[in-house]
Amino acid sequence: MLSYPNIRHLAFLVALAEQRHFRKAAEVCNVSQSTLSAGIAELESLLGVRIAERDRRSVMVTPDGLRIVEQARRVLHETEQLLGLGEAAGNPLSGRIELGCIPSVGPFLLPRFLPFVRQHLPDLVFGLREDKTPALIERLADGRLDLVLMAFPYDIGPFETEMLFDDPFRFVCPVDHPLASLDAVEPRQLVGEEMMFMERENCLHRHALPVFATWPTLADAAYSATSLHMLTAMVGEGLGSTLLPELAVLGGLLSDHKVAAVRLADGVNRRTIGLVWRRQSPRAAGFRAVADLIRRWVAGQKGNDSRGLRAIGARDAEAPHRIT
């Protein structure tokens, strides 16, 4: 009779591939180093393949081992899906959800929104991870995340998507800037304005650029930033102006900085915030409940108005939001 690897073997292997260190992998799996080492050796014996090469400092997974690791991830993911079917059948609005979010959304939404979730869905617990969009989508695809909170437009591929709310951009400038006291900025008033943006790899850079497709040519910026906090501080020091999302402005990003936020007169320059999950997830009903809660929370925010964040209804959420 054939002997098969078990789920524990596969979990040990994936942890070792990610940590590249036996002690660290053992800590992740909550076992002793000797137990993990014996499990890897047993897996190598069962498969007849050398999976890892060891030295005193680190572990290198062999090319054959890397292919086995990818298959192991898929098996573990399918096992989690199997367990999730039972959990979802009992109560899709309970348990732990691994949620990923981008840096321009998470810090400004989650600290204020999660208490609202706790009030309405007390049996739901979130594990949080902040990262750039490509890394989050990769983790979603291989099962390390259940749900991703991100900005659109973005071509995410074969995933389920619920659009939550529109997040318009604000023109942000030093408080002593000639445009700082206006209610709204007209396109003609930005001629020659020196603008600063996030680095090109950041999705906020890509979302802000279309604002200028029909607006006047601006002066080339001498600076770019790797974080919204750095970008705001640079504006406060008079190094230029920028565009920031309304969500970040309402979330307190401008506090302690000598800057002003002015809305854009055309009212159409915005990004859209949405939730993404795997189409086959058995917890889809729970994810949609979270999406509805976010819409309700956005609609009830003080300081927001019809020109600010706008919750998207279910009918709007079904529309495609992709870059063509």
Automatic annotation (TrEMBL):
InterPro entries: LysR_HTH_N, LysR_subst-bd, WH-like_DNA-bd_sf, WH_DNA-bd_sf. Residues 5-62 form the HTH lysR-type domain. GO terms for molecular function: DNA binding; DNA-binding transcription factor activity. It comes from the Bacteria. The keyword Transport does not apply. Keywords: DNA-binding, Transcription, Transcription regulation. This is HTH lysR-type domain-containing protein. The lineage of its organism: Bacteria, Pseudomonadati, Pseudomonadota, Alphaproteobacteria, Hyphomicrobiales.
